[in-house]
Amino acid sequence: MANPFRVTTLACIACAAFASAATAQQAEPPRPVVVTSAPTLNFYGLPGIVDLPSAEALPSGQLAVGVSHFGGQTRTNLTFQFSPRISATFRYIGIRNWDSDGFDTYRDRSFDVRYQLFREGRYRPAVTVGLQDFAGTGIYAAEYLVATKTFKRPFRLPGTLKATGGLGWGRLGSIGSIGSIFGDERPTFTPNDTGGEPAFDQWFRGPVSPFVGLEWQVTDRWGVKAEYSSDAYEPETSRGVFERKSRLNFGAEYQVNKNLRVGGYWLYGSEIGVNFQLQFNPKTPAAPFAVSGPRPVIVRPSRTSNPAAYDTAWSASSSAPIVIRDAIAPELAEGGVRLESISVSATRAEARVSSIDYSNLAIVVGRTARSMARILPPSVETFDIVLVKDNLALSKVTVRRSDLETLEFRPDASNQLLSRVVLDDAAPSAAADAAVNPEIYPRFGWSIGPYVRPSFFDPDKPVRADAGVSLEARYRFAPGWLLAGEVRHRVAGNIADSDRLSNSVLPRVRTDAVLYAQAADTTIENLFISKQWKPGRNTYARVSAGYLEQMFGGVSAELLWKPVNNRLALGVEANYVQQRDFDQAFGFQDYDVVTGHVSAYYDFGQGYYGQVDVGRYLAGDIGATFTVERQFENGWRVGGFFTLTDVSAEDFGEGSFDKGINITVPFSWFTGRPSQQTLSTTIRPIQRDGGARLAVSDRLYEQIRSGHITDLTGDWGRVWE
Amino acid sequence: MMRALTTCLALGATAFLVACSGGTDQGNTQAAQLATIYQQVRSNRQASAAPLPTLTPQLIAGLTVPSLEVTIEERGATAFLIPFSDRRDSGPGDLRTWRTANNVMVVLRNGVLVATRGVGNDLGSADADAAAAAVARRSPISGLHTLFYKNGTNGISTVDLLCEMRTVGSETIQIVGSSHNVVHLQENCTGTRGIITYDYWVDRRDSTVWQSRQWGGPDLGYIRTRLLKK
To answer: What is the ipTM of this complex?
Structure first.
């Protein structure tokens, strides 16, 4: 068979004028259909009517951002449908004209959880139980049991009608009570409480009231809503925030596109309200992922038709690995894969590769296997592809060359290939006789550009930010070694303007952020050296030293055990760090601490992960952090965590203990192009000093997951790309 | 690299929202991310610059290689492809991979769509052996037509279609000035996604598929092909 690449290269020259124009051209695409199958949101950012909840669940994995406003009250809500039945909501509110308890505008954060007890059946309604503001100071504290039934073409009218009825406690039982079921004592809302702890003592206590609501989705785009509320708005009306004249709320909503819905409302007989509802699902990328197609697999002649091709004399030549390396490395590099080394024998070859562009390592496996099949002599039947990330050999994927040849265009080729490959632990380093690619070290990279450092939830100004120019560089001078640093120069910002200085009684390991912002415009964000390696089977190690993060410098060491095909990983990390000077130059303050954790990571399957870290935190407190996370195969991750330590709620201060949510979005989800970059953020309702961990970069578990069984099989659909 | 840095600083001075990166190791700071966006926007602009040529019999006569026109209906996008590789496997017929200059690929088995690469929402693979055999025979064969397409989470989703093929009739079609005597075969399929129709216009003498309209999956939608030069 002729080399098809060469043929087409010639062909391309011959038809240059033609082929150069061969990029896709956009004509007028048809108008997209609006899909409104997801439940609509209420003013609390939950599936619901106007101000009341319904029993519907959002599609699994859905993220919903709702911003609502009425009567001087603005709620910004983020809801995540963690599993098909469980959802969680984080909310930040501002109530104007509060004018009491020391606030002009009352600002608060709250968390909700909902559990759908029953899905809707043919006759049975969906039933959901919800805890609203279950951990805060409880301005929105309420519990409810709610049922919703959907009727298609109700009374021969067009569209869909959803009827909701429920029982509410707390705020949702504050008017029209029919008595109490689980005791009538319920603590009242106290605006200046530290809050934050689950309020077990109040759930489902006190008066209970029924509520009802209707939603009629008239057309694809238009819907109307009406409800009879059981919320008296006592804290607000008693402070004159707004006047409540009625229990009835009405609204009309318009679906602008697949993701955005807007509504206008008439609430409580006196107020006009608006609600912006943005919903999207991590499973549906903003731009479909596409990489340029790979080179074809070259099929060997059969052994019977051409036995001479299978001669193994070539393997005796000492230059064979080098010749092969020099042929494969450039071809792989063109495809976004870095060849680290290759070793060959007459029938087997091991290529150690790392990714240049792809976060999806199945693509790296596929492209490496293709190149090996194109270049290696026909006698080599078994390919061992070792996935490497910065000197950590993550796993070894063994692929049979004949499977590549036969399956390339067969039905269900990806799954067929997956069932034929073997995934195993990889040796820490290449065999002694391997041909190492001399071009992989040293590597240097830099970037310069703007940065923004936001700061949320200051009661005086909920969103603050500093912005400026950042210069960052990395130097990998030998396998596993990294010298990296980032210098920032602030051009503008208002974080330093805050007059809320720390009132913490603990060592101020995190609450001095304002002092850090005030001290200097030009700062060293970080500057460190690190080395990582694989000490043995299934184990990974890292040592870092230097200015590890904005507030601390010192040394950090970590060891992780994680077999490739195992759901469990165990790790231990120990750090000795000293607090950096506020000006974030080279100096240190007096405070130093030994901090470290023993960690267990568990992959529950279906994208659910759990993590427990037990140890000593930056302020010297001892305790544990619990994290749950949902990860999507495309790299999206949404999770929540909380930390309990021996610091009392009183010493901790507002919030009582540390908690927050993590969101990571892969860059390629937005662009549709391969990239290893991610946008990652941690939102804490409040940052205090208890339960604070060192923010060292390149923790091991995050680095190695992508090459282990769950991520690799999750990505495998793209192995032929 | 120094030139890149200088250009960047010059640009950065005029517009605050410019970021640059360089070297052989990619970072993950905000600046590095912005630099990536900047590079991608620039390469998109370059990629979409060249307009498609107007097809004339003269242009096609002058081509030295086979050419296939492919249109993705839902996106209103058209491209011209040339052959990249040919092979056979254990399934029926010949496999030909067609590609554009920037390596967007369409794989046809006897003219029947079995895979796409680099389009986005790609068709990973397909079981279209019945259709491929029918094209070779120029007479209908009914059977299963299964699509394995890429979903949004790097996985493969499956659409099973139960298809009945019929001969619509003998037709003469025109493709940029040249006419072809063809048999029009139509596959009418049902699946959970509703009714899907495949049309193949097959040369009466040698089974070449001159023209087709085929379904690539729920997100990719219908794809039309016209063989401009065999």
So the answer is: 0.91
